[in-house]
């Protein structure tokens, strides 16, 4: 299903043939999920060349393999394997790839973001099949894990792994108090992962239903960023109450909403020697006041995370394979639409009623 511009319905386009090059695989899509960036692209909130096939969170099954095709851990790929794959295609040889930053490759291509072109028409998850190109991290996944759990691994879960890895390189998660701003798909995933790692997690979100969802994913407490400063439900008050009960001051903050006010909250409330990881700010927004003296005196580190490495994706799959029994990940996909109803899926995703909405060309009842 091809997007051709803001306000235009997605168009069904047939691809008569696929030429797999060395290292490519052809995957039949089992389930794709609609990421917020898909909605932003469709609504014109971010620049994109068109026409393009949206979708970069998906799980599927290999139906054709070119020679010399390997998974992220170096194992040969074969037909019939169930897989997820990275949002990015990297060259592996440029200066950024050699620095360990393949997600910022000089020759970067991204599934669901590139203009549809001859020879790579099947470049996004809103399709029956995706041509997964050489240079893409591919991870074989367990047959028993539901598709609704696995599809978001290719963006949301792997990004959270990268964010937590960036934070824990400076501050160990075990015993830390972690502030998570934003309780969408990334926020509740971060809440579960940090809690499982031994952290005390406080989640801030203006939506009451999302705050309740965060509690189901292990949050020790939730806060309303819209509450008056002195309110017991405000972010500062909730953090103070936890400290009085014996918790440490917040030394990790993960900003996952993209709201300027949330970025400001994270910078203002992080404790001595803490780290603020900014993830949600992927679109232009309001300016944020940076009090450089306060940053210096509190020994605060500010880091940015955008996309992830192949290792992050592999770790995300490993985590989900065990965590879906402990946390209600399978319930985060609120509704699944047939591929022909992709416009309706995008419209529902735009309401943020559900953390994720699914799209499939299969019968929904057959999904794992």
From TrEMBL:
Broad class of enzyme this protein falls into: oxidoreductase
One Gene Ontology cellular component: cytoplasm
Alcohol dehydrogenase-like N-terminal domain boundaries: 22-138
Sample GO molecular function, one term: alcohol dehydrogenase (NAD+) activity
Coiled coil: none
InterPro entries for the chain: ADH-like_C (IPR013149), ADH-like_N (IPR013154), ADH_phosphonate_catab-assoc (IPR017743), ADH_Zn_CS (IPR002328), GroES-like_sf (IPR011032), NAD(P)-bd_dom_sf (IPR036291)
Alphabetical list of Pfam families matching this protein: ADH_N, ADH_zinc_N
Residue span, Alcohol dehydrogenase-like C-terminal domain: 186-318
Transmembrane residue ranges: none
Record keywords: Metal-binding, NAD, Oxidoreductase, Zinc
Cofactor: Zn(2+)
EC number(s) on file: 1.1.1.1
PROSITE patterns: ADH_ZINC
Entry's family note: Belongs to the zinc-containing alcohol dehydrogenase family.
Protein name as annotated: alcohol dehydrogenase
């Amino acid at each position: 299903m091809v997007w051709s511009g803001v306000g235009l319905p997605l168009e069904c386009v047939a691809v008569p043939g696929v030429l797999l090059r060395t290292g490519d695989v052809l995957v039949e899509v089992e389930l794709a999920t609609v990421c917020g960036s898909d909605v932003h692209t469709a609504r014109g909130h971010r620049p994109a060349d068109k026409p393009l096939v949206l979708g970069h969170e998906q799980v599927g099954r290999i139906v054709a393999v070119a020679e010399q095709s390997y998974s992220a851990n170096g194992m040969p790929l074969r037909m019939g394997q169930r897989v997820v794959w990275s949002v990015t295609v990297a060259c592996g040889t440029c200066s950024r790839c050699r620095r360990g930053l393949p997600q910022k490759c000089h020759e970067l291509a991204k599934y669901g973001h590139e203009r549809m072109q001859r020879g790579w028409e099947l470049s996004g998850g809103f399709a029956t099949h995706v041509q997964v190109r050489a240079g893409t991290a591919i991870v074989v996944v367990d047959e028993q894990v539901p598709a609704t759990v696995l599809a978001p691994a290719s963006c949301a879960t792997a990004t959270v792994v990268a964010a937590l890895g960036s934070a824990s390189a400076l501050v160990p998660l075990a015993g830390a108090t972690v502030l998570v701003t934003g309780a969408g798909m990334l926020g509740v995933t971060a809440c579960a992962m940090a809690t499982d790692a031994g952290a005390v997690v406080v989640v801030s979100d203006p939506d009451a239903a999302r705050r309740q969802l965060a509690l189901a994913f292990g949050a020790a407490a939730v806060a309303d960023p819209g509450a008056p400063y002195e309110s017991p439900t405000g972010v500062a008050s909730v953090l103070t109450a936890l400290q009085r009960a014996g918790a440490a001051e917040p030394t990790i903050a993960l900003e996952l909403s993209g709201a300027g006010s949330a970025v400001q909250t994270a910078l203002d409330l992080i404790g001595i020697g803490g780290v603020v990881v900014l993830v949600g700010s992927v679109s232009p927004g309001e300016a944020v006041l940076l009090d450089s003296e306060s940053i210096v005196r509190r020994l605060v580190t500010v880091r940015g995370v955008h996309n992830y490495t192949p290792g992050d994706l592999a770790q995300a799959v490993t985590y989900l394979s065990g965590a879906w029994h402990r946390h209600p990940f399978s319930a985060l996909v609120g509704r699944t639409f047939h591929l022909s109803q992709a416009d309706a899926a995008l419209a529902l995703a735009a309401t943020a009623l559900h953390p994720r909405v699914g799209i499939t060309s299969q019968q929904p009842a057959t999904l794992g």
